[in-house]
User: What shape does this take?
Amino acid sequence: MESYVDKLNTSGRHTNYGYDLGRRYYYIYLDYYTGFDVSIHEMLKTRKEGGFTDAWVRIMPDLSPTIRVADDAVKKKMDEEKIASPNQVVSAVPVVPQLEFSVPPAIEPDPILSSTITTEPLAQKVAPVPRTFVNTPVYLSLIHSRNGKEVEGEIEVVDTERSRIISKVEGNSYLTLPDPKSKSGGLTLVCNAFGYRKLQHEVNFKNAGDTLPQHVILMDSFYMVTFDLIRYHKGDIATLYNVYFYNDAAIMLPESIFELNKLLQMLQENPEYKIRLHGHTNGNARGKIIKLGPSNNFFALTDDVKNEIGSAKDLSRERAQVIKDWLVSEGIGANRMEIKAWGGGRMIHERESANAKMNVRVEVEVLEE
Assistant: This one.
């Protein structure tokens, strides 16, 4: 084991080893982190790099009596970061890959059973703790397919049999899957992240099974469902549903900045992207149009705003234009963006319906990538 650690460290790793007192097996870990999210990120990065495609994250109940550290620098770092707290995380691989063992749940770590480290061989295999979606949390991991970075997004949990949304949750978080109470037990997890193609995965609540689908991984004490998200391609159209405007205005509400930043990031990430911004309104009536004043405040009704009269098509054009102008102010070339005004020509809901506000929108079409 020590020889293997030395070999890995010679190749540039920061590897060390430990011993689990409760379940009596040695393990080698690639690195340790004090935060769970960063541990997940590093684990996925390690898997993509190759060499440790089965790397996993282990949550240690108490590191101080279970890890024997040979490296004084690592020991000092552990002392500085108070690594003995009960929620520490390490990215690890087992010393003997085929060894079966049970692991403590992340939310209720087992107590340390002894303070003495022993090197005696494992007497017998410990029966694994049965894991099902009923008693095991699920971590919803949203990852950029090219660079492995975490992506912000939302997950819809859908009862597959009845095509009914049960709940919506933020990505990169834990969830105890709800029981659809259907005959099949099927659930569909739909990932929505602006700037990325919609992606969905199927799971079965009743039977996690011994053969999990590729996107579901049984970790130390939880399941991880991974969404490898792909950027929009040429021809894709997405709606900026979280970009909002003041009434009768081509000026955005402050909370629009979050989704705008996602659009900006998408354009910065791929300089070849060219887009068309489609403006839409709820109906075709003429009326007042409030436009930006000389101060160019994209997110406030300032004293210098301009009040004009125009058509619904004019308003839809000005709203698409103000998004373009904001992107230009953030360094995106104007020649990468086009404007198309539709007014109320392409409403998706009846003008007087409960969902009429969704007619007021700007869509992003990818023209080139």
Summary: Helices lie at 2-10, 36-49, 72-80, 257-269, 312-329. The mean pLDDT is 81. The chain has three domains: 2-94, 138-229, 237-368. The longest helix spans residues 312-329.
